[in-house]
Amino acid sequence: MNKPISFEIIKRQPGTLGRAGVIHTPHGDIETPAFVVVGTKGTVKSLKPEDMRDYVGNQVALANTYHLFLQPGDDIVKESGGLHKFANWDMPTMTDSGGFQVFSLGAAFGKGVTKFAKGEVAENDEKTGLNVYSKKIAEEHGKLCVIDEEGVTFTSHLDGSMHRFTAERSIDIQHNIGADIIIAFDECTSPTADKEYQVEAMERTHRWAKRSILAHKQNYEALKKQGLYGVVQGGRHLDLRKQSAEVLSGMDFDGFGIGGSFSKEDLGDALRVVNEVLPEDKPRHLLGIGEPEDITEGVALGCDTFDCVAPTRIARTGTIYETTNEGHKRTNLLNSKYQRDFSKPDESCDCYVCQNYTKAYLAHLFRSGEMLGPHLASIHNLYYIVNFTKVLRESILTN
After folding, report:
1. Is the dihedral of CA 216, 220, 226, 227 positive or negative?
2. 83/161 same-domain check
3. Which residues form the catalytic set?
4. DSSP strand E in 148-235: where?
5. Do 250 and 151 belong together in one domain?
6. Which of 99, 177, 249, 273 is the most buried (most CB within 10 A)?
7. In this predicted structure, which of 13-22, 115-124, 189-198, 207-216 has the lowest mean pLDDT?
8. The pLDDT value given to residue 125
């Protein structure tokens, strides 16, 4: 049987692990390196699917297993004809495993811990916390999930109801959602966890990976339409990262995700160690990390695709990406100096927003609480990151 997901390397970047390639999927090709736009609940916040096609130009979108399971329910997505039909996403799609939500409901709950370690952990800091954090439910339930060998028992952040994810259940839910690329169930640890626990979580992730493959192969219809990625874990420890990559390389996956938590300083070494081990002929996705400098480093170190909620999350608070002489920066349009700034949001950008609007107008929208503000800022930020990644691809193709 032909695999639904295959990867072709078009050109390698001399002196690095970087490569330009194509991921072939049932819903079209993804030219890599590529940025994957995140539409957590089957929607990119404030954007229509047509906006992605006409204004952003992304090739692929990712939805979240945990959130679609809770709302509207994976059975409803399946009944509708799957994610592509349900969300009108006319492009290749991915779903994650729900593993990162396990992390954010468990070890990281209420602590403002993200994919990158940032020194001291801020207790109960809702501003830096993860998007599933609710102080009210925290006070009522304490930790929202408990991890055991078989899987995870967790409490819904929506209504406090209790649910159970196992490797098999995560794959079953992803089969129902119907994305082209699905991801094996994994445990994402906190960057503050000690090495002993990182080993325990990594080995559990490997056992769950085997069970995920078995669950996927038992659904013949899904096997024809969906490719499965395994997830490399190991935290900030290079020896564990290498070990995880070696173990997963021996399993029958269609590609690999690089998950878990890093410090900014550790990211490069971790990616190098992992991508020197992972099979060359399969795509590699860096999960949940997508700032311009991180993508640049990731591409040079052999990653093919990236996803991150940052472009739209910061856009909704009035922050846009801008290129300056010093490089990429985040510009907060609520700063008073932009009220009379009639320049383009980014002078070097040719997106729809930069061709038609000024910083002053966007600043006005955010100051007056108009919905158009987050919409336009999201289009710009996504275009900025998507096309920045396309430029990196071009630079490999043209040396």
Report:
1. positive
2. yes
3. 96, 307
4. 151-155, 162-166, 181-183, 227-232
5. yes
6. 99
7. 115-124
8. 37
